[in-house]
Amino acid sequence: MEVIPLLSFLFLPSGSTVMMTECTSLQFVSPFAFEAMQKVDVVRLASLSDPELRLLLPCLVRMALCAPADQSQSWAQDKKLILRLLSGVEAVNSIVALLSVDFHALEQDASKEQQLRHKLGGGSGESILVSQLQHGLTLEFEHSDSPRRLRLVLSELLAIMNKVSESNGEFFFKSSELFESPVYLEEAADVLCILQAELPSLLPIVDVAEALLHVRNGAWFLCLLVANVPDSFNEVCRGLIKNGERQDEESLGGRRRTDALRFLCKMNPSQALKVRGMVVEECHLPGLGVALTLDHTKNEACEDGVSDLVCFVSGLLLGTNAKVRTWFGTFIRNGQQRKRETSSSVLWQMRRQLLLELMGILPTVRSTRIVEEADVDVEPNVSVYSGLKEEHVVKASALLRLYCALMGIAGLKYSIQPQTPGLKQSFCLSLPSSWDYSTPEQEQLMVVWLSWMIKEEAYFESTSGVSASFGEMLLLVAMYFHSNQLSAIIDLVCSTLGMKIVIKPSSLSRMKTIFTQEIFTEQVVTAHAVRVPVTSNLSANITGFLPIHCIYQLLRSRSFTKHKVSIKDWIYRQLCETSTPLHPQLLPLIDVYINSILTPASKSNPEATNQPVTEQEILNIFQGVIGGDNIRLNQHFSITAQLLVLYYILSYEEALLANTKTLAAMQRKPKSYSSSLMDQIPIKFLIRQAQGLQQELGGLHSALLRLLATNYPHLCIVDDWICEEEITGTDALLRRMLLTNNAKNHSPKQLQEAFSAVPVSHTQVMQIIEHLTLLSASELIPYADVLISNMSQLLNSGVPRRILQTVNKLWMVLNTVMPRRLWVMTVNALQPSIKFVRQQKYTQNDLMIDPLIVLRCDQRVHRCPPLMDITLHMLNGYLLASKAYLSAHLKETAEQDRPSQNNTIGLVGQTDAPEVTREELKNALLAAQDSAAVQILLEICLPTEEEKANGINPDTLLRNVQSVITTSTPNKGIEEGEDNLLCNLREVQCLICCLLHQMYIADPNIAKLVHFQGYPCELLPLTVAGIPSMHICLDFIPELIAQPELEKQIFAIQLLSHLCIQYALPKSLSVARLAVNVMGTLLTVLTQAKRYAFFMPTLPCLVSFCRAFPPLYEDIMSLLIQIGQVCASDVATQTRDIDPIITRLQQIKEKPSGWSQICKDPSYKNGSRDTGSMDPDVQLCHCIESTVVEIINMSVTGI
User: Fold this and answer.
1) GO:BP terms for this protein (predicted)?
2) In Å, how far from its chain's centre is CA 350?
C-alpha cells in the first residue's frame, strides 16, 4: 500500500532532572535466584554465586535450623544439601547467633517501647530496647553482639513505622546511619529479615515495606526482605499500591514507591502484569503501570504484532471504565504540565517507545536518528516515509487509534501533526484542538494533504473493498461546516474514532475556514454530491459514511434548492437500490426530501423547491400491477424499494395536507398525486409483506401503519387483521398440503363456464371453488373478476348454502390483498337488475363520497346472509373511507374556497363561513350519513309482507330465542322455535346487530342520534338483546324523555323498559324511577286525546319496570290508580262501570294475595268486561286494570 507523507516531525518533549535512584550500585536478587527460593529448588540454589547466595542467607539458615513441617525423605536430602551450601559461608555464624536470641523477651520490650512512645509522643527520645547509646548508631551496631544488634535495628524500624503512621499520608525522608552505611548493609539486612520472620505480629511485612520507602536504600532492603519471604510478594505489592498516590510522578514519595515496586517486579517478572492489574484496579500509581508495561515490552519484543504498550494504554483510554479513563488522562495531563522532562520520566519513556514503534513499521528513505538522553533538547531527525508494508497495517492502525485516544481523551499535545496511514482516523486526528496550525506552511500542508486524499478517493475505496468511502466523510464534514453544525462534526469525529473526546467548537474555527473557503465551497459540495454514485444494494449491513449521509445533510441545509441543483433523480435511484435490512438513514432522507419539496428555502424565493418523483416513475417501481391489485408484484424491484416508495407517497400526501394553509399563504399549490395512481398501488399487499419483515425493516412497518390509520382507515379494520391471521396461520399451511394438481389446473375460464351452468347444475362450480379455497391470497387474484362478476347468479333460488359460504370465504381471502378494487367490483356486481335500464358503474371516488350506495343493492342480498356479510363489511369500510376523504377535502379547500365562493361537496352555501363552521358541517354530514346507514339496516331487520304472512316478526323471533333456551315443552315446540331461529332473516339480523354494536362503540353519538330519530318499536326487543352496547342509551334516556314530542317520550319509555330487563343496574333503577315520575307529571298536563295516545303504549312498560326492580311496585301501583281516577272523573257521567273498576284496583293494591288466584283465572283475563266501548278513557281504564293484574300476578308468582 503506497501512502505519501505518513509521518511528520513527531517531537519528543524536552527533559527535566528526575531523582536518580540510590540503589544502582547495589546487587539485587536476580529473577533466577528468586524463582529458586520461591520453588525451594535446591539444585538451582546450589548453582548460585556466593554474592547471590549471600542475599538469601537469612531464609536458608532458618530452613536449615528450624524444625520443618515436611518430614519426607526428599526434604531431608534437600536439607543436607542446604547445610552443605551454608557450611562454607562465614556470615552464617552471625545469622545463627541472631536466631539464638530470646525473641519472646525482645517482643515484650518492643511492645513496652511502643506503649511508651504512644504515651509520651512519637518524638520522645526514651527507648526501652536501646538505652544510652555511647557512640553513633553505626559504631554501636559494629561493636554490639547479636541481641543488641537486633534491638538497635528493631528500635530504629519501630521509630520509622510510628512516624509513618502519624504522618497522615505526607511523605518524609528519614536519614538513618544504620540503613545508609554501605559497610553494614548486608548485616542490617540479615537482622531485618530475621526480625520480620520471628516477630511477624509485631512487624507486619506490609508495614515494614511501607517504612522502608522512607529510608535510603529502602528498595534494596525491601527486595531482600521479600526474597527471603517469597510467598509475601503479592501481599507486599498490593499493600504498597493500595497505600500509594493516585498520581505517582507528582511527588517524591510516589516516585520512590514506583521505583521500589519496579525493583520487586524485576526480581519476579512473571508477576509484573499481575501487579499492573492491581495498579489499574486501585487506580493508583499510573506511572508504575506504564513503567511495568515498558519493561515487559522490551523483554517480550514482537515485531509483527501490536505491542503490549499499545494494547495496555488503549485499553485504559478506550475501555468502559470511566474512572480508569479519567485517572490515566490526569496522569498524561499532569505529566505535560511540568515544563521540562528528562528521560527518567515515565511519560517521556512512553512517548519515546511509541515513536520508536511507529518509526519501526515505516520504511525510510534516509536514516533516522532517535534522541538519546544526552541530547533531549535536540529535535529528532525523522525522514519522510514512502510506503507501508501490508503486514504492518494492523499495527499502524492500532498505533493511530492510540494516538487519537491520547490526544482526544488524555490531552496529549504535539507540536506538528502526524500524517498517518488510516485515512478517516488521521483526518479525525487533525480536528481536535490539540493541533496547532501556527504557520501558513503547516496550514498549506493540511490543505495539500486533504486535497490529495480527495483525489485518491476512488483508489482507496477500490483497494479497501468497502462501499463507505472516505470522500463521503469529507463531504459530510464540509456540509456540517457550511451549515455551522459544529456539534454534529464533533459527534462524527467521536463515532468515527469510536471514542468520546472533548473538542471545543471554538477550536474548529480555523479548520472551518480551510474547508469552506479553500477546499469545499458550498457550490462545489452540491455539484459533487449529485455526481456521487448511489450505493448499490444499500442496507444496514453497509456501515460507515455513505453518499446518503451527504445528501441528507445537503437536503437539510437546502443547498440543492439554493444552487438550483436537481436531486430528485439521485434519490429515486437510491430508493430503487435498496435491500433488507433497511438502512436507518433512508426514512429521514425521505422525510427531509418531502420537506424540501413543499417548503421553500426562503420566503423571498417561493419557487426554490425540489421536484417530486413523477407518477410514471412511481408506477415503474410497481411494474406488473398496472390496473390495481389484480396480479402479483413484479420482482424487478425489491420489496424494500416498493415499501419505501409507498412510504414516500403516503408521507407526501400527509405533509401536503398538513401544510395547506402555509402553502396557500405563499400562493403555492404543489401537485397532489392522483387518485388513479393510488388505486394502482397494492397498498394492502405491501403492508402484508412488510408485516412479515418487521425485524429487517426497522421502523418502516410501524410508520406505514400510522400513515394508513390516518389516511386509509378502511384498510386498517380490526376484523381484517384478525381474518388475515386465520388465513396466513397454521390452518392455511395444512390446507395447502391438501392442494392437488387438479386444483392448480383450474383456470378462470373454467370457473366462468361452471358459473354459466349454475341454473342447471351446481356440482362443477362447487368443486372448483372448493379447490380455490386451498390457494393463497395472491394465487386467487386472477380468479377475482370471474368470481365477483357472477355473484348476482348466486341470489337465485335453489343455490346451495355451501356455495354461498364458500364464495364468502374466497371473498374474505381476496380482501386481504386487494380490498379497494374488490369492493368496487362487488358493489357493481350486486346492483339490482332492472330491465331496459343500464346499470351505473360506480368508481372508488363515488363510493367514498356516498357510502350508502353499498346498500342500494339487489333486495335479495338482504335475505342472503353470506352476501349480506360481504355487504356490511364494505359498508363499514366505506363509512371509514368517507370520513378520511371528507377530512382531507376540508383541508384541501380550507383556503381556496373562501375567495372563489365554490360549493364543496356536502358544504353547499357555507364557503364564507368560519373554519369552525365548516368543521361542524362536516361532522353533521358524517353523522347524518352514519345514522342513515343505521336506519336502513334497522329497516332491513323488519320482516317483509311475505314474511309476515308466514308468521315471522321480530317479537316472535325474540320470544323463540327465549323459549328454545328455557322451555321444557315437548319436542314439537322446540322444533318450531328452531325453524324460526334458522331463517335467513334471523341470521341477517345477527350480522346487522354486530355491525351496529361496532359503530356504537366507535362513536356513541351515533347511538344517541339514531334513538333521538327513533325507529319502529317492534325492533326494540331485537336491538336491546342483539346489540351489547345498547346499555349506553341509559346515559341519554333522561334527555330523550325531556323532549317535547310525545312520540319521543313514548319511544324513550319503551326503550327503557327493555333496557331494564336486559341490564338491571342501579343506573337503570334511577332512570326507571325518573320515567315513573315523568309519567305522573304528564298525567296532570295531557289532554284526553294525548293521554290516551301516551299511556296506551307505555302502560305495559310498567310491568317490565316492576319485573326488573320490585322496589318500584308501590310507586307504580299508585301511578296506575291515579291514572284510573283521572280517567274515571272524565267519564263519570257517561259510564257506570268505572267506579267499580277503581274500587277493584284499590282492593288489589291493599290485598294482592287475595286476588292472585282470580288474576290467574283465564275467565278473568278474557272475561265479560265491557271491551266494546270505544271511549278512550274506558279503554285506558281496562288497560290499567290489565296492567295491574299482570303486575300483581308477577309479584305473587315470581318472574
Assistant:
1) snRNA 3'-end processing
2) 44
| H or E element, residue 767 | helix 763-772
pLDDT tens string 846-880: 999 999 999 999 899 999 999 999 999 999 999 99
C-alpha cell at 53: 547466595
Predicted confidence (pLDDT) per residue in 1051-1110, tens digit: 999 999 999 999 999 999 999 999 999 999 998 888 888 888 999 999 999 999 999 999
Report the amino acid identity of residue 233. F
Residue 387 pairs in a beta bridge with 2
- Written as one letter, the residue type at 657 is L
Distance in angstroms (rounded) separating the CA atoms of residues 108 and 122: 19
Q: Give the largest Cα separation in the chain, rounded.
A: 158
Surface-to-core class of residue 740, CB atoms within 10 Å of its CB (0-12 exposed, 13-18 middle, 19+ buried): exposed
Mean pLDDT of 277-293: 89
Alpha helices in 853-914 (DSSP H): 865-892, 897-900
C-alpha dihedral sign at 944, 948, 952, 957: positive
- Written as one string, the DSSP assignment of 784-795 is HHHHHHTGGGGG
All residues at 6 or more sequence positions from 648 whose CB lies less than 8 Å from its CB, including other chains: 575, 590, 593, 594, 613
Dihedral pair phi/psi, residue 381, rounded to 5°: -85, 95
DSSP letter (8 states) at residue 861: G
SS3 364: strand
How far is it, in rounded angstroms, from Cα 304 to Cα 129?
61
* CA-only gyration radius of the chain, Å: 50
> How far is it, in rounded angstroms, from Cα 227 to Cα 30?
10
91 and 186 Cβ atoms separated by less than 8 Å: yes
- Residue at grid coordinates 305495559: 1100
Residues with Cβ < 8 Å from 118, sequence gap 6 or more? 162
C-alpha cell read off for 1112:
318500584
Tell me the C-alpha to C-alpha distance, in Å, between residue 1100 and each of 513, 621, 1116, 1191: 93, 68, 11, 10
| Distance (Å, whole) CA 560 – CA 573 | 17
C-alpha cell at 383: 525522514
